[in-house]
């Protein structure tokens, strides 16, 4: 049994082309079958995540072929290596991989289809808080914002690029600072350190860069200082 490792990178591109990864260089011409000797296994079953590196293994019975080509329907070719192939599927509801085995000049094709879904937006937080109330001392102790992806069994991170902080106080003018990066800069640090019980702290215009290199605007949130 021969094993080829395939790494699929699901990114938010908008192409609808078919790209062929060819080991033998021959064209695939035959009827499509959905049965072994080819099997593609994903760690997440029949699901692939957009914007995340999806690890796949392609199992083939080497006694069944002389050479092989792998075709991804709706994918952009990334890279070819001896131990596997790297492809970048486009933004669509499903991804299909078609493997063609050549034996004595005859081609046989095997098709496997995976559905795709997007990772949810990360939830911006101060410490562990994203809504409700926060003690003034707890807020001052924080170094900045964080944006975890919740309820997902993957190691995925978003980089916070920028946001604004506004402090509102009864009978006083609103005060606002702009911040680059996740960590509080000097202006926002001073503003956070000045909060008093009864103030509202509003985090707005939150922008993070995702796994695909694309920027996302995250939900604003407000906290009541007590």
Features:
single chain, 226 residues, mainly beta, 2 domains, six-stranded mixed sheet, 17 strands
Strand-helix topology:
Elements: E1 2-9, E2 18-22, E3 32-33, E4 38-42, E5 47-50, E6 53-60, E7 67-73, E8 75-81, E9 84-89, E10 94-103, E11 106-118, E12 133-134, H1 136-140, E13 159-168, E14 175-180, H2 186-193, E15 200-209, E16 215-217, E17 221-225
Parallel strand pairs: 1-9, 3-11, 5-11, 12-17
Antiparallel strand pairs: 1-6, 2-7, 4-6, 7-10, 8-9, 10-11, 13-14, 13-15, 15-16, 15-17
Share of β-strand residues: over 45%
Distance between the termini: 64 Å
Radius of gyration, taken over Cα atoms and rounded to an integer in Å: 25 Å
Classify the helix fraction into a percent range: under 10%
Order of helices and strands: EEEEEEEEEEEEHEEHEEE
Summed up, the helix count is 2
The biggest beta sheet reads: 6 strands, mixed
- Count all strands and give the number: 17
Structural class: mainly beta
* Contiguous uncertain segments of 5+ residues: 11-35, 77-86
Overall 3D shape: rod-shaped
**Total domain count:** 2
Q: Report the mean per-residue pLDDT as an integer.
A: 75
Describe the structure.
Helix content is 6%, strand content 49%. Strands 2, 3, 5, 7, 10 and 11 form a six-stranded mixed beta sheet that branches. By secondary structure, the protein is mainly beta. It has two helices and 17 strands. The N and C termini lie far apart (64 Å). The longest helix is centred in the C-terminal third of the chain and has 8 residues, at 186-193. The chain has two domains: 2-118, no CATH class; 133-225. 24% of the residues are buried.
């Amino acid at each position: 049994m021969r094993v080829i490792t395939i790494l699929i990178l699901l990114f938010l591109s908008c192409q609808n082309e078919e790209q062929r990864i060819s080991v033998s260089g021959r064209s695939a011409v035959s009827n499509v079958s959905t049965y072994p000797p080819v099997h593609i296994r994903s760690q997440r079953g029949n699901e692939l995540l957009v914007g995340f590196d999806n690890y796949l293994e392609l199992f083939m019975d080497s006694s069944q072929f002389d050479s092989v080509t792998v075709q991804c329907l709706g994918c952009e070719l990334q890279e070819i290596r001896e131990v596997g192939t790297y492809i970048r599927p486009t933004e669509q509801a499903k991804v299909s991989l078609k493997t063609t085995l050549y034996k004595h000049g005859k081609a046989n094709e095997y098709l496997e289809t995976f559905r795709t879904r997007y990772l949810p937006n990360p939830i911006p937080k101060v410490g562990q808080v994203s809504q409700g109330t926060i003690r003034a001392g707890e807020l001052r102790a924080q170094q900045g914002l964080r944006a975890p992806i919740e309820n997902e069994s993957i190691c995925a991170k978003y980089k916070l690029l920028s946001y604004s902080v506004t402090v509102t106080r009864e009978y006083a003018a609103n005060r606002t600072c702009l911040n680059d990066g996740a960590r509080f800069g000097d202006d926002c640090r001073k503003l956070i350190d000045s909060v008093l019980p009864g103030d509202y702290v509003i985090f707005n215009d939150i922008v993070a860069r995702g796994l695909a290199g694309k920027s996302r605007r995250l939900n604003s949130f407000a906290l009541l200082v007590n």
